[in-house]
Amino acid sequence: MKKVVFINIFILILATSLIKNSTKEIEDKIFTVNESIRSLKSELGDVLLEYNYLSSPDKLTQYQTQFFEKNLIKIDITKIKKLTEKDTHIEIGDFVEKKKDE
Amino acid sequence: MSDKKNNFFLEEYENEFSYKKNKTNLNIEFNRIAFIFFIFLAISIIYSIQLLHLGSLKKVANIIKPLIPKKNYRADIIDRNGNYLVKTVSSIDIGINPIEAIDKKKLLINLQLIFPNKNYKEISKKIKKNKYFYFEKKITANNYEKIMMLGDKSIKSEERLTRIYPQKNLFSHIIGQIDDDNNGISGLEKSFDEELKQIKEPLKLTVDTDIQFLIREELIKFHSVFKSKGSTAILMNVNNGEIISMVSYPDFDLNTRETISDINFINRATKGVYELGSVFKTFTIAAGLEEGLIETDTEFLNLEKKLKCGKNIISEYDKKIPSDLTVEQILIRSGNIGAVRIGQKLEINKLKLFLEKIGVLSKIDFDIEEVGEPIPFKWGKCKLATVSFGHGITTTPLQLAKGYAIIANGGFEIKPSLIKKTLEDNQNQKRIIKEGVSKKINEILRKIVTTKEGTAGLANIKGYEVGGKTGTAEKAIVGGYTRKAKVNTFASIFPTSNPKYVMVVLLDEPKTSEDYIYKYKNKSGSYKGTPFNTAGWTSVEVAGKIIQRIGPILATKYIEN
Hints:
The structure holds two protein chains of two kinds. By secondary structure, chain A is mainly alpha-helical.
């Protein structure tokens, strides 16, 4: 009986240390991955900043006048159409409903 | 006899004990030692595993250093679409301490090879002075590697955190400035100072960069057309109070870190306190409808052309206004005397209570600290009369936008905000105005834009169902008002059938333009030159142009909202 108890305790202690060890290993990996993500996030942030600056409306307008001859046009919302997918066909309708007072 | 019995019992006990011992075939002393040894073994195994683990942890920690130094750190700020409005970036400055240089000539030659375009006469002088100086600020990664490869002890690198504003002037009043000690001194940088120093994720705002840009561009354009002192525009979602755009012009570039002392650079949208004129008539009529004292078709007959109240004379701005008007016509034609009559019907308490309810009378609780306080005044008979048509009462454009939003959204309380909140935060809205008032007012506001008698025909942009009310107010000077300086305002809502947005455009001291060509919206043709310095010919035109440009974005981009 005592032998069984001893062996069980021994197995439990050993199993606990092994599991704990493997958990720590996983934690290490998570830590490393998190740190890598953080550095990647920081890099992504810098790239995004550059992108935001270069694609800012101010810059785009500047490029437009610099590289294109034609001016940008305003979209008349009443000319925008809405496509609705039906079972057999696509229906084309106005994006905004025309009101009586317009 | 009894002694014999005792002896027998002891013997029997001894025998039993030795029998059991033999049966287990184990020595108790050996067991104890084995058990203790086993415990020690187990502890040493656990301890060695822990030691191994800690060793491995230290190794990882050494490789990857924390990327965000705590000193001078501030979180980034992004717009509603995730575009950076402010970003903290780390940069390296290179300094030289000439005392530590082994061979100054060799150092100069090496530096010349890496940075050929620098003025080396100046640098040579600085080296001779033997005092520490900055050689290159915000060095590139490539040059940093090259310069550090020189291995000279005199070359020192300093890591710094810099706040970058990629949108330059676009959000200057909203974001605000920080001082050299990394403390916010204005705008969100000040009011969210502690949060920005602590949070890791960027602070997300409700503003849209593209819309802000387009609105600012129109304000700048009309700033030169109408030669105004300044202008402001606020675009807000009427249902949740999210501010999509808030521009105050003139503004400043946050990257230059200038000290702004000129009062003309104030945030007119929140800090500017103005008498806004007829835009207040909407509130007077809404209050009358709320109290059930009037209906939109209630008639006011034999309205005077002039009213005397104390020293002041109240008159109509348009002499063609008929003497008999319905409530609807009073708002459409912007009748002063009619508005006074409605105000008198309401009496002081009811009008005051309504204005308090929609939040135009007291200082607003907002996300930035630069907020103006409406000038307090004493209510009386004359004050009631002037307040009814928007004179003798002041408020900020932001509070005006809030008031119009509440009236347009069905009467629900909203809190204007620049910080993006979750959907749950925007729920649980409290009704503060009776159901039905909103619909009646929205219909009249639409008629102000669509009908010939209305004062805002220039804002009738196809497809957006714009409605709104104009307000032209003379600026107060000591002892009265001046006709030379006006504040022209247009408070608009769109689409009026189911309002989503409120937009307030205010021009501070605009002048008439002789060359500007107006294109009529309600009929064909155009008109050259500004005939009157009124909101209908200035701020309404600006609002119309803005809606024309931002409308397609609002209609398509925010279709789900």
